[in-house]
Amino acid sequence: MSLPQINPQDKQGKWVVATEARNNVVAACQNITSARRYLSTIEFPYCKPPEVKVLETAASHVYTDMLSQQRHQYVYANVYHIMYKRCKALIDWFTHVLTETIAKDLAEATTAANAKAQELRQERLNLISVKIKEELQQDVSFEARAEDLADDSTSVTEDESQVFQAEGGEGEDKSGEEPPAADVDADEPFNPVPLKELVQTPNKEDLFGDAQELYKKHQENLEELEKNRMINKARQEQGLEEKLRARRSRRQRQEAVANEQQLQQA
């Protein structure tokens, strides 16, 4: 139910609808901001920070806007309805990137990973054959089959290689309904740019970062971990040596005291 459909005298009903709308708008702004933070290397073609800021401001004035039909119509046409179209266009763009870039790269990586898993399995079988020959003096041979990879933890299954999608599918409105048209024309009508005319879709480096830089960072992390491990090991060995020295010293003192007592008794 929209605000104009509520009886003007039903103040409680108007407050309930306005509160629900405000909460949904605030949640939408948070989702867009979080998506931008997680995808910091990607430039969004729609729903840029200034636009989200306008939407947040409108949400903070929702109780004032609902008191005037004229103001409600203006804000709906120039903010809410326009931002709905922008968000819908952004979801379509995300879907385009998923299907045209990420899904293709993932399919190629999955094929390459399964091929390497096949080679690894065959190498394991070859080593088993060599070991059997050394121990039992018998010549045996094994051959890795593609169907056996389904039980191999190193293989990537088709289900695991799918791109996860949020609830609701590929950016489709599950209700199948468009929001009601604005009663007034927006000051700046929004007409989404066709996907083909948008800025170039992000490449691998934009999506995942520079592979060489990531590998270098990974190596640095491994070296740092190894360095810390050696330092901790040296500290443990030093502590153990100190404990052993203290124990030997205590034992020597005890033996000296015992020898002295024996001499005194003699």
Q: What can be said about the biggest beta sheet? A: none
Total helical elements: 6
What is the H/E string?
Answer: HHHHHH
Oligomer: single chain
Rounded mean pLDDT is 78
Beta-strand share of residues? under 5%
Poorly predicted segments: 166-172
- Global morphology: flat
Termini separation: 109 Å
Label the structural class.
mainly alpha
Q: Using only CA atoms, what is the Rg?
A: 34 Å
| β-strand number | 0
Helix proportion of residues, in percent? 55-70%
Can you give a write-up of this model?
There is one protein chain. The protein has 266 residues and is mainly α. It has six helices and no strands. The chain has helices at 11-38, 49-60, 62-65, 69-136, 204-208, 211-265. Helix 2 packs across helix 4. The chain is flat.
Short description:
By secondary structure, this protein is mainly α.
Tags for this entry?
mainly alpha, single chain, 65% helix, 266 residues
How is the secondary structure organized here?
Elements: H1 11-38, H2 49-60, H3 62-65, H4 69-136, H5 204-208, H6 211-265
